[in-house]
Amino acid sequence: MSKKSSSNPTVLISVVAAVVLWLAATWFEDDSRWLPEGNAPTFDTTMDAPRSDTPLRVNTDALSCQQVETDLIRKVDGAQYCSTDDDCTLFDYGYPIQCLTSVAKTEITALRLEYRNYEQSCAYRVYYDCPSGTMDRQAVCRNNRCAVDLVNNEPLKDATLQHLGIKDP
Questions:
Q1: What is the H or E stretch that residue 104 is in?
Q2: What are the phi and psi torsion angles at 102 (to 5°)?
Q3: Which has more pLDDT, 94 or 153?
Q4: Is 102:91 a contact under the CB 8 Å cutoff?
Q5: Distance in Å from the first CA to the final CA of the chain
Q6: For residue 73, what are the CA distances in angstroms to 10, 55, 56, 65, 145?
Q7: Is 152 in a helix, a strand, or coil?
Q8: DSSP class of 31
Q9: Quick check: bond before 96 cis, omega within 30?
Q10: Residue 109 to residue 121: CA distance in whole angstroms
Q11: Is the pLDDT of residue 147 over 80?
Q12: pLDDT, tens digit, for every residue of 26-78?
């Protein structure tokens, strides 16, 4: 049995082919042969301000959605005035309003219309609803401000423990 030597013509041809391919690739990477001769133009690449002929594009949908959301939150906050518990009612609509929210009964119709405007203005809004289940919630007036009392928070406690994977003792 004879041993193959390292001077095998296949190895030599492979090495020569690799070197030729590398030289060709290096030559094709050089863009200077495609550019006109002479001084290359310089470009101002500073990002100080947009050029006067560049239209400024902003996402007006997102801006108007943020404004409607801010207005809704402000109106809900302003509608939480009361004198007695009977002045308040629940307003659990989900995002962007906090869950377990209570507002003045006299403002509920205007707030529902405002929430509908929010839904129509924000095509990409976040969807989540407030958990209610079997919780007994009651709108109350505390310090002339509508609030929510949980009469029985066991369902909320059980749901939280279950979500955390803790068994109630």
A1: strand 102-104
A2: -130, 140
A3: 94
A4: yes
A5: 81
A6: 78, 33, 29, 12, 15
A7: strand
A8: G
A9: yes
A10: 18
A11: yes
A12: 777 766 666 666 666 666 666 555 556 655 544 455 557 888 888 889 999 99
| Cβ(97)–Cβ(74) below 8 Å | no
In DSSP notation, 106-153 reads GGHHHHHHHHHHHHHH-TT--------TT-EEEEEEETTEEEEEEEE-
pTM: 0.51
Q: In Å, how far from its chain's centre is CA 30?
A: 43
Q: Which helix (H) or strand (E) holds 103?
A: strand 102-104
pLDDT at site 40? 61
Q: Tens digit of pLDDT for each residue in 74-117?
A: 999 999 999 999 999 988 777 778 778 899 999 999 988 888 88
Which residue is it, tokens 């007006």? 60
In the block, which residue shows the tokens 């939150």? 73
Domain ranges for the chain, please list them. Answer: 60-164
DSSP string, 41-92: PP-----SS--TTSPP---HHHHHHHHHHHHHHHHHHHT-B-SSGGGEEE--
CA distance linking residue 80 with residue 107, whole number of Å: 9
Tokens 């066991």 sit at which residue?
A: 154
User: Which pLDDT score, from 0 to 100, does residue 128 have?
Assistant: 64
